[in-house]
Design brief:
The structure holds two protein chains of two kinds. By secondary structure, chain A is mostly beta strands. Chain A has three helices and 19 strands. Chain B contains seven helices and four strands; from the N terminus they run ααβααβαββαα. The chains are: A mainly beta, B alpha+beta.
């Protein structure tokens, strides 16, 4: 049943494509949709229409009538991993589609607006081939963390100036990874999945014709990742053993708080600035993978394996700045900058989970034709280098490893108002 | 000589009044009437009527207020050439139902005889809105679309 529901949610996203992402503020996308992304993710006090489902739910009230939006992003990460004493290895070419689909409408002429959407919240992943494992043989490092959300949303115009919104997130997450599967202690883990529940409360206040403020609070999404399988390589002797039950504990999508302000210095200009806080320190600490139920007989003590990943991520502050200019009724252009602190500590850097990119610039435009909006945004995440400075130990096998990472993303969206 | 000075003074005052008239008109804003008052006004004035359907908390209506309705050229045009009715579709749903117009912002134009001649919806820029007013005032809707009319301007 769980897998069936997961498959249905996934089918809503994209036709079985690997719709999972490298995300860029930790594991989150910097923006929600092409308009938000074009402004560097500064969106909490900016009218959003349908994409408010994934942003500030209070902004759903700005849809005014009915709107349907379909689109997404294509993300191309560029990474290099350099293990101690080895040449650097680039990741395989990856282009991740990140779909968004949503519908929103005002209920009649009332103060209520409702909407529903499905979108990729974020994730991360690497695909390094021909990396020498700890036995000196060619091996691979691979990971894929995917998180999608179905988000019914409601917004209410409390007054002419104050709007409130609430989103209930029904999430579905999957994780697969390979940790040098051909070497001793190597792991090949597939099929970890979890449903999650979370909520987001948002508010927006229009101070006057020029100034507006907004805020959101998103609760933590606890995950119960199980249903997976692990192939563990014990090396000479026992060899590879398949464990039919694998689960992952202490991997959580963090709570987040965001505040922002927007300013219209002139009728055609809009400036926006957001500050976000993401509580990674509570969400990602020591992630533990437990495997049990081996498919072949194993010696006593090998029935259950526990593999800890000490990650101890830090809380993250994110600063987003965006500008929008309406050239005429048809064309609107945008630009933005986003800085998100690197949540990964130097002493626990793991090339399977290197969510380290910090600086992003964005640019975008909207072409409006009658009731149609065509939005496009380009996003570049500048290269970030990081080296694991922790002492080598069984729980820190990547001591001295260096990771470099930058990425480019194209966002597109089509909206129709009726 | 005093007569000449007086004459010059009168001319200067006239020029000044002519120069500041639009701004003075703009200062008062658009003379919005409620729907019933606008219908009554149309019986005594040979002008087309704009019925503007809005909601006070509609974001796109606020956009229209900022981008269009505060502009002097729009204020002058509407106040001098049109009867302007503003209908809150929540507080006064009857006109919205009559014209089947729950979309906000939207615009329905009536001829001086009270017949609906054109309608439009959505946020517009000032130039487009002024073009639409010219389109209705010149009765160009009888022979071409607004898009063609705007292209020919």
């Amino acid at each position: 049943m769980k897998r069936m529901l997961g498959a249905m949610l996934t089918a809503l996203l994209v036709l079985s494509a690997p719709a999972w992402a490298w995300a860029t503020n930790g594991m989150n996308m910097i923006g929600t949709g092409a308009v938000s992304s074009g402004m560097g993710g500064a969106d909490v006090a900016v009218p959003a229409g349908c994409t408010a489902i994934a942003g500030n739910p209070a902004q759903l009230a700005t849809t005014c009538n009915r709107v349907v939006s379909v689109g997404g992003a294509f993300l191309n990460p560029q990474m290099e991993v350099t293990l101690p004493g080895q040449e650097g290895v680039d990741n395989e070419f990856q282009l991740f589609p990140l779909p968004f689909a949503g519908y929103a409408q005002r209920i009649g002429t009332s103060r209520w607006s409702v909407g529903v959407g499905v979108f990729a919240q974020g994730g991360m992943g690497v695909d390094f081939n021909n990396v020498k494992n700890f036995n000196g043989a060619d091996d691979s490092l691979y990971s894929q963390v995917a998180f999608m959300r179905l988000a019914p949303t409601v917004a209410y115009n409390v007054t002419d100036k104050l709007t409130m919104g609430l989103t209930a997130f029904a999430g579905y997450a999957t994780i697969d990874y390979d940790f040098f599967p051909r070497g001793t202690q190597g792991q090949h883990v597939t099929g970890l999945s979890s449903f999650t529940i979370a909520g987001r409360l948002g508010a927006s206040y229009q101070i006057n014709d020029q100034w507006a403020v907004g805020a959101t609070y998103t609760s933590e999404s606890s995950m119960d990742l199980d249903g997976g399988e692990m192939r563990f390589n014990f090396g000479p002797g026992l060899g590879q053993v398949n464990y039919r039950d694998a689960k992952m504990d202490n991997f959580t999508w963090p709570r987040q708080a965001k505040v922002g302000v927007s300013f219209k210095p002139a009728s055609k200009w809009l400036l926006a600035f957001d500050i976000s806080w993401v509580n990674w320190s509570s969400a990602i600490q020591t992630v533990t993978v437990t495997a049990s139920n081996p498919s072949t007989p194993v010696p006593s003590g090998y029935d259950t394996l526990t593999v800890p990943f000490i990650m101890d991520w830090k809380d993250q502050w994110i600063f987003a700045l965006g500008a929008q200019y309406e050239i005429n009724d048809t064309w609107t252009v945008r630009a933005g900058y986003n800085y998100g602190q690197n949540p990964v500590p130097d002493d626990t850097l793991n090339p399977l989970f290197p969510a380290i990119v910090q600086h992003h610039i964005t640019a975008g435009f909207t072409y409006t034709y009658q009731e149609w909006d065509f939005d496009v945004a380009l996003e570049h995440g500048f290269n970030t280098d990081q080296t694991n400075t922790g002492a080598p130990s069984p729980t820190n096998p990547f001591s001295g490893t260096e990771v470099s990472h930058y990425q480019d993303t194209v966002h597109v969206m089509v909206s129709y108002r009726f | 000589m005093p007569r000449l000075s007086a004459l010059v003074g009168i001319v200067l005052l006239a020029v000044l009044a002519w120069a500041v008239a639009p701004a003075m008109a703009a200062q008062g804003g658009i003379h919005w009437l409620d729907y019933d008052a606008a219908l009554a006004a149309q019986k005594t004035q040979d002008k087309p009527m704009l019925i503007y359907f809005h909601l006070p908390y509609c974001y796109r209506c606020k956009e229209m207020k900022i981008k269009v309705y505060k502009q002097a050229a729009v204020i002058e045009k509407l106040n001098s050439e049109f009867i302007a009715a503003k209908v809150d579709v929540e507080k006064n749903p009857a006109p919205a139902k009559l014209y089947n117009s729950d979309y906000t912002p939207s615009y329905v134009f009536l001829s001086p005889a009270g017949k609906e001649v054109y309608r439009h919806k959505g946020v517009m820029g000032m130039e487009s809105f002024l073009g639409m007013l010219d389109f209705v005032q010149s009765r160009a809707y009888r022979r071409q679309s607004l898009e063609k009319f705007m292209e020919s301007r």
